[in-house]
């Protein structure tokens, strides 16, 4: 599995990278702009990501903007809906309006922080990623 992690917090990034690397190759970015660029390069190389984990609160471009960018790239390249990347939003923002906005923009799963490994693995199983 090919995974893209976008996380600006060093400790969370280190934890998530270690956790996710058990399941596949994990590329790491520190802001939403880098994530969209990495996603675009992977599409152009014909090696798209299977999973994108996006933090919402990041510098330069937040997770919502990055998610919009990713979904727009998929539309531009006519990626069928069943082949669209699975996106798990990871954030401490658990208010209903934030959750709703993430799903409206096309996220697949919303996971609150701190990350619960067991629940995160269950979410990945639900998406048939593991």
UniProtKB/TrEMBL annotation:
Which Gene3D superfamilies does UniProt cross-reference here? 3.40.50.2300
SMART domains (alphabetical): REC
- Keywords assigned: Phosphoprotein
| CDD domains given in the database record | REC_hyHK_CKI1_RcsC-like
Give all 4-aspartylphosphate modified positions. 55
| Any one Gene Ontology BP term | phosphorelay signal transduction system
**Tagged with keyword Transferase:** no
Superkingdom field: Bacteria
**What SUPFAM superfamilies has UniProt attached to this entry?**
CheY-like
Q: Where is the Response regulatory domain?
A: 2-128
* Membrane-spanning residues: none
Q: What does this protein do?
A: May play the central regulatory role in sporulation. It may be an element of the effector pathway responsible for the activation of sporulation genes in response to nutritional stress. Spo0A may act in concert with spo0H (a sigma factor) to control the expression of some genes that are critical to the sporulation process.
Name of the protein:
Stage 0 sporulation protein A homolog
What organism is recorded for this protein?
A: Acetatifactor muris
Name of the gene: yedW
